[in-house]
């Protein structure tokens, strides 16, 4: 049976985007060819170049190129360390190499949703939205809260100090920490193992401290790098 207005490929793409909440945007592709051009790059760092070139030119220091693409490539290029100890895997069940894939796609899907409802945002508006989406994407599916310390440090050490200590980054660190506190509370409520509970409490203490003082995460990372000690005294 023939499709009168859509090719089989377009129909399949709409079904996929509907599953991501982007179906309405896909159906507008006839009037806005950049929709499909950029959305089909979701999951790759080239997505941000498409946004810059086709939707909103913010320059080298703007979010799409200066932050989105830059850190997409940096964090995607990290081979996150794995833990081999059974207890450590129970405390830190998240795989950093899975986490980076989940985060990359999540951030880009969230941006697509934003563009579907904000046709002509300013560069500042896009940046504010993008940073606001970071904590949600960092902690969905594979959660940053469950990464092992070496993976957390790998993320932190690959972010430029000027970016890590900026007001917008400190806000996202604080908001991520708040999510991690609740995440640890949820895990503790369902955990029966005594020693595992002790470690979860330890990491809840870390995230509570970071939620109050975001810069304390940097102090903890520096201490871990220097000593290898996970002791939490931010």
List keywords for this structure.
disordered N terminus; mainly alpha; 234 residues; 68% helix
Could you describe the 3D structure shown?
This protein is mainly alpha-helical. The N terminus is likely disordered. It is 68% helix and 0% strand. 28% of the residues are buried. The chain has one domain. Helix 4 packs antiparallel against helix 5, helix 7 packs antiparallel against helix 8 and helix 11 runs antiparallel to helix 12. It is built from 13 helices and no strands.
Q: What is the 3D form?
A: elongated
N/C terminus separation = 65 Å
Largest sheet: none
Q: What percent of residues are in strands?
A: under 5%
Low-pLDDT residue intervals, each spanning 5 or more residues: 1-31
Would you list the SSEs in sequence order as H and E?
Answer: HHHHHHHHHHHHH
Q: What average pLDDT do the residues reach?
A: 87
**Domains counted in the coordinates: how many?**
1
Q: What percent of residues adopt helix (DSSP H or I)?
A: 55-70%
Class based on secondary structure composition and strand pairing? mainly alpha
Number of helices: 13
Number of strands: 0
Radius of gyration: 20 Å
């Amino acid at each position: 049976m023939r499709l009168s207005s859509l090719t089989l490929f377009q129909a399949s793409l709409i079904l996929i985007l509907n599953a991501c909440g982007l179906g309405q945007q896909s159906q507008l592709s006839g009037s806005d060819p950049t929709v499909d051009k950029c959305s089909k790059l979701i999951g790759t760092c080239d997505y941000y170049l498409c946004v810059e070139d086709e939707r909103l030119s913010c320059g080298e220091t703007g979010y799409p190129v200066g932050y989105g693409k830059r850190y997409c490539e940096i964090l995607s290029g990290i081979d996150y360390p794995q833990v081999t100890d059974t207890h450590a895997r129970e405390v830190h069940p998240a795989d950093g190499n899975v986490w980076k894939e989940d985060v990359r796609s999540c951030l880009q899907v969230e941006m697509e949703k934003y563009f579907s409802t904000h046709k002509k945002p300013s560069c500042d508006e896009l940046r504010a939205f993008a940073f606001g989406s970071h904590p949600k994407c960092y902690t969905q599916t594979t959660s940053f809260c469950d990464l092992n310390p070496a993976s957390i440090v790998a993320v932190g050490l690959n972010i430029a100090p000027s970016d890590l200590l900026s007001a917008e980054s400190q806000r996202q660190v604080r908001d991520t920490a708040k999510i991690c506190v609740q995440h640890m509370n949820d895990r503790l409520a369902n955990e029966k193992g005594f020693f595992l509970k002790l470690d979860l409490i330890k990491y809840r203490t870390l995230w509570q401290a970071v939620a109050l003082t975001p810069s304390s995460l940097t102090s903890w990372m520096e201490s871990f790098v220097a000593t290898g000690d996970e002791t939490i005294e931010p």
